[in-house]
Here is the input.
Amino acid sequence: MNNILREIFDGGYDFTPQRDEKQHSLDQKAYEEWDKVQRMFGGEFVDRLLDLEGERQDWRAFRYYQAGFRLGARLMLEALSS
Here is the structure.
């Protein structure tokens, strides 16, 4: 049995979820649609739009991380105070 704390400490723990078939299919469909948008509006427009979407996703991911950290801290406080 692997020690998850040791894996995290050593930097070997991979928390990235694996892409499943459905996600791959949806990604492929989205790429096809982005190609259509690029042909219609040009590469510069699409690049700017994708940059904004990336910033938006980064911010959302940070907010989820922040909320998860708070939840973890609250759970630990609850466990230690009982």
About this structure: The chain is about 80% helix and 0% strand. Residues 44-82 form one domain. The radius of gyration is 20 Å. The helical segments are 4-10, 21-41, 43-81.
